[in-house]
Structures are given as C-alpha cells and as structure tokens.
Amino acid sequence: MRLWIDYITNNTKEPYLWIGGKHYGDWLGIDAHSGSYRGASDIDLIASAYYAYSTGIVIKAGTALGEDVSEYKNLYKNIKNKFNDKFSEFKTQTECVLALYFDLAEDKEKTACTLAKMVQNNDNKLTTGFVGTPYLLYALSTNGYTEAAYSLLLQENYPSWLYSVKMGATTIWEHWDGVKDDGSFWSPDMNSYNHYAYGVVADWMYSVAAGIKTDENYPGFERAVIRPFTDKRLSYLSASLETRYGRISSKWEYCGSFIRYEIEVNMEADIIIDNNKTTVCAGKYIFLGETDGGRKQV
Prior knowledge:
Elements: H1 2-11, H2 43-64, H3 70-86, H4 93-101, H5 108-121, H6 133-141, H7 146-153, H8 161-166, H9 201-209, E1 212-214, E2 224-226, E3 236-243, E4 246-255, E5 258-265, E6 269-273, E7 276-280, E8 283-290
C-alpha cells in the first residue's frame, strides 16, 4: 500500500496531486461527450481525489498496525490543501460526490446542496459512471439529503437501477441502457449484462436504508451501529446480515402517524432512532419513531 502511494508521489507531474498517466475517468458516465466512454468529470480531479483517499487508507491501516504514519499524515494534509487550491468548483455529479465522500470539499454544505440540485434539475436522475455511482447515494444521505438519495434509488426511468429491472434484468448491467426502450442493444461490442459495478447500491440499502453498520473501532461487527433512514415512498423495508458474531436484522414499517422498527442484534449495539441513541446488548427490540425525520429539502 505504501509503495502504491509512493509511486503516485514520484510519478505525478504536479506535487500533491495526481496529474499525468493513463486514466479511464468516470467510465461510462451518462454525461460523457459524444463519441467518448469517459464521463465529463475532470480526470485529474478524479485521480487526485483517489490519491487523497488512498493515502487516508494507508494512515488508517498503519495506525491499526502500530506503524509510524506521520509522513503520510503530512502528505494527506498537503494533498487536501492542494486539491482545494486546484479544484475550487465542482461541475458534475461525480466531482461533487468525490469531494464529499472523500471529505475534500472545503464547504461541504454548499457542495452537497449543489449535488442535490444537480440531481433534482435532472428530473431526479443520475449522470454518474463507474467512479461516481458507488458513492452517490452516500454523498447525499450523509450530508442531509436522504430524500434525494431515495429519489434516485426509486427512479424507474432511464438512467436508473429500476429501469433495467423494468426491462427484464435479473443481473446488473454494464450500461444503464444496455437494452433501450425499443428493445435494441446499446452496443454489440461492449455490453455486459453481468457487470457488478452499479450493484454497489445494495450496500447503501443495507447500511443506510436499513441502517446496519459496524463500529470501525470494533471491526467485523464485534459491535454494531443500527441507524435506519426511512422514506414514506416505501411502506416497509427489511434486511438481515449474518456476521461472525451472529445475525443482525433491521426492519421498519410505516404505521399511520409513526414508524415501527424491529431490530435484532447478537452483540452490543448503538440503536439510533430519530437522533436518539440507545445502547443495547444482544436481543430483539421494538421502537416507535416519528414519520418526519427532519430531512433536508432541496
């Protein structure tokens, strides 16, 4: 891991950014220019964002292993400062997503608002490709726009996850429009129908919609955090996860003026409902919550 960071550091054309080399950019982004497979997002911005993100992972891993990571902490600080000097404006959904999810944006509230408006102004549709899509719903929900994230999740028109389902998909496609409305194919030369990249949405459904998360200080679900985020457009949601410490299940259902939560854990856990935290031991629990979670509106 350190060798990879050192490679970038020694081969970039501009210190503390990742400039130069071959990059695919936001591959298959909807906002790609005509005749290109690359989305419209700045390739140098994407590479530099991942430079920062990867350095942050090295710091976490090194700290966990008892290594001296002071050099990489200093590097990360310089990368983040240089990133903000170089990229002061985010022009695409993916650029906003990376700046938010990788904690690089100087003004997160403004950037999150910009992203939410981009989604809303595009008829609640995404424009992201392989780079932006994995973090898109997280970038919204983590910054107060859970409703906008759900609008993307539940969108049925192209481009969306449910568009492919409506078109008969039983696996994740490589292209948002692998099969078009008229039944024709996107392209005969590069059109996989079993291509997991966009399937990462399932992780958001487990960790945000159902709210099942591990405590980073207790890896492997030795300790859990359960914090579901609901949306009235779904009458209920239920998810379960088998961990090395036992099964976790999280279910919520709209019941008139309140939401009923059923949560089961086999380890100590923090259960957070309507911003109220309850620490529990292994067992089954029922909570009643408010129907208005106070989510931000665009």
